[in-house]
Design brief:
alpha/beta, eleven-stranded mixed sheet
């Protein structure tokens, strides 16, 4: 795999231990946003004055009062409430929505010293009509699905970290398309209080970052689950087995995606890991039907009133999903939930407490904007069963990013992160170039 050769620019990074002030770091981020936002269009509301005010307040703190994220610029997907900023959920129906309080994750970031730079673009209701955001590597291509704004802002070097959400594939896919890390923790490991609800059993809070260390820092602040990451006994030395998945159901991985899988598999082999093949065609097929039943039922419950009051402002996709959800009985919904639970247990038995699945993050590099936001197939299953998944940048074939995805059993987040960090050091990667 070859790497694009363009002038390298560093991403604002700081935290604790850096000699730079929060104001210096924030001003650098502001400059990059002002420089690149006209082309990338990642932000719903950019708040430079508010960011500088936050930075000044942080710099006024004594050293012992400063948090672990002191001065780190962060962008927030508009599905999370940010006090005083526009959070429209990607729909004109809520175009003027400005929360009066922060979502739990936003409050936790502020408390840890992060600086909120603004809210970023989501697709409509985080699953349908795409917003104006473009891919930072090629403006004719999609930045991915609903976490398009956060991913593009990070991929373009405007901020080092952003918060996103995933209900089908909306962290992994955009992160891979934009050439950055994207982490979807085990379901429930990050509190989603104050986030727009699509489906409680499927909604995940996730982190997008250009550097692995920043992702880890954010996760350590946001993960509130006692004992999270208490993986198997071999965790300190990495996985006991790598399960390679080249099957994505009815769709197929492109030669580029398969080459990325093979490259990563070779890295694991070179480190003495046991590498075996895994086939999940039946599980992937069952997952799509099950997920759609759960999602449509819950969308009707959460957003049916919007359908009734302003349906003409909704895309056909959202209207259709809500209408379908209204026809799903409680018994059908219960069976789908039970089916997801059974599938999760089966997958965890396959993977094992010390195993990790290796697959591609996407079926190919980012498609053209006219072709949509890309396939959800490589991400959907892991969302349904709540297993932790991370995309790791794996080079720039043809000048566009490609990523590989690592997945572990529920609760084994620390094992997945450990393996991702080690793999990332051996794979070709690229920061944003301009």
């Amino acid at each position: 795999m070859t790497s694009a050769t363009r002038k390298k620019t560093s991403v604002p990074a700081l935290p604790n231990g850096s000699e730079r002030s929060a104001e210096e770091t924030v001003r650098e981020s502001i400059h990059r946003i002002e420089e690149r936002e006209p082309k990338i269009r990642a932000f719903v509301q950019f708040d430079p004055e508010g960011a500088l005010a936050q930075a000044h307040a942080l710099d006024a703190l004594r050293l012992e009062e400063r948090g672990p994220l002191h001065g780190m610029p962060v962008a927030i997907k508009e599905v999370f409430d940010v006090k005083g900023l526009n959070c429209a959920w990607g729909t004109p129906i809520h175009a003027n929505r400005v929360p009066t309080s922060d979502a739990w994750v936003v409050a936790a970031l502020r408390k840890a010293g992060a600086v909120i730079m603004g809210t970023t673009v989501s697709t409509e209701y985080a699953l349908a009509k795409a917003g104006p955001t473009t891919n930072p590597w090629d403006s004719s291509r999609t930045p991915g699905a609903s976490s398009s704004g956060p991913a593009a802002a990070v991929g373009a070097g405007m901020v080092p970290v952003a918060l996103g959400s995933q209900t089908i594939g909306s962290i992994i896919r955009p992160a891979a398309y934009c050439g950055i890390f994207g982490f979807k923790p085990s379901w429930g490991f990050i509190d989603d209080t104050g986030a727009m609800a699509l489906s409680e059993p499927l909604d995940h809070v996730g982190i997008l970052a250009s550097k692995f260390g920043d992702l880890r820092s954010i996760y350590s602040v946001l993960c509130h689950t006692p004992g999270a990451g208490a993986a198997g006994k071999g965790q300190e030395n990495g996985p006991g087995k790598i399960h390679v998945l080249r099957d994505v159901g009815e769709e197929t991985f492109s030669p580029t995606a398969l080459a990325a899988i093979d490259l990563a598999a070779d890295v694991f082999k070179s480190h003495g890991c046991e590498v075996t093949n895994l086939t999940l065609a039946t599980q992937i097929a069952d997952a799509e039907t099950t997920l759609k039943t759960i999602l449509c039922h819950d969308m009707a419950r959460h957003h049916g009133s919007d359908r009734d009051q302003a349906g003409e402002q909704m895309s056909r996709r959202v209207r259709t999903m809500i209408d379908r959800g209204r026809g799903i009985s409680e018994d059908e919904y219960r069976q789908a939930r039970e089916g997801a639970s059974v599938l999760s247990e089966r997958l965890e038995d396959m993977v094992g407490s010390e195993g990790v699945i290796l697959t591609a993050s996407t079926i190919d590099v980012a498609p053209l904007l006219t072709q949509g936001t890309g396939s959800r197939a490589p991400q959907l299953l892991w969302t349904l069963v709540g297993m932790p998944a991370i995309t790791v940048p794996c080079g720039m074939p043809g000048g566009l990013p490609i990523g590989v995805q690592l997945v572990g059993a529920r609760g084994n987040d620390d094992l997945v992160l450990l393996v991702a960090e080690r793999l990332s050091k051996d794979l070709p990667q690229n920061d944003y170039k301009s």
